[in-house]
Design a protein that fits this description.
Elements: H1 33-49, H2 61-67, H3 87-93, E1 99-103, E2 107-108, E3 116-120, E4 126-129, E5 141-146, E6 152-155, E7 162-164, E8 171-174, E9 179-185, E10 188-192, E11 205-206, E12 211-214, E13 220-227, E14 233-237, E15 246-254, E16 259-263, E17 272-279, E18 289-296
Parallel strand pairs: 1-3, 2-4, 3-5, 4-6, 7-10
Antiparallel strand pairs: 5-9, 6-8, 9-10, 11-12, 12-13, 13-18, 14-17, 15-18, 16-17
Length: 297
Amino acid sequence: MDYPKNTPGIGLVNGKFVDENPVAGTPGSLIPASWGNSVTQEILSVVQAAGLTPDEASNNQLLGALRGSNLFVTPPQFDTGKSVATSAFVQRALGNYAGSRGIAASEQLTVADVGRSIGIGGTTSYTVTLPDVNAVPAGAVISLHCRASSVVTVASNSGAQISPQGAMLNSITMTSGENATFVKESGVWTVYGTASLKYATLFAGVTGASGYQKYPSGNMDQWGYGVTDANGEMYVTFPVSFPNACVSVVANHVGGDIAMVILIVGSNTKQGCRLRVRNYTGQMAAGWSVNYIAKGY
């Protein structure tokens, strides 16, 4: 589309149309039929592409077409081209969720779930499988929020594709109240959110009758149990060695009567300690049970 510069005798001045000037004796520009038809057709093409029927009596159809919903098409979800972005595409690109839905039983998620916020519910344990990470573009996001009353497993589609806190795993677990955002980064599903914390080194721990729990501050709790030897003493080996020092040990006798548990002075190390048990008369015996909690960093 341009001015009819190549039409002989058109009378353009500086490349544009001018009016006739009787005083100066200069003629006005001519508007050839081909140019008028071209301009009209350019406008009609936009009006018709928007789904409107051209109306000779209407003077606002071009504006209506530009403001309508049929002229511009929302690009596909992962489009990276330079086509016009609709408001729907912009809202999605700004980080808003593309939609939401719920899950209450085992399900294979698909590429269509990328960008969604998905609530996990139900009363029994089941497995939610993520899309193959190789089938989605870099930066793809799936957000899960767990409201289930049982443990839910989130598994990869193939191999160790899930990476919470730097680990490479086939699956992670989620419990009620936890959230996890899975983002494709460097060819894996990187996990953000509270569900990833239990996989962090700073929160490492082991549950059971003997175990330990680490904290982000560097502090660490350990606990366990044992029985006394013939001397009424018990050597404690901690589940793991404290990185720096054991600073406190608290223990209690498990039985049917009064007994005192003493931490033998100087015996506590990073690896363990020695406890001594005496009953209220000062007697000692083998086989007395003792539970302990040790604190260190």
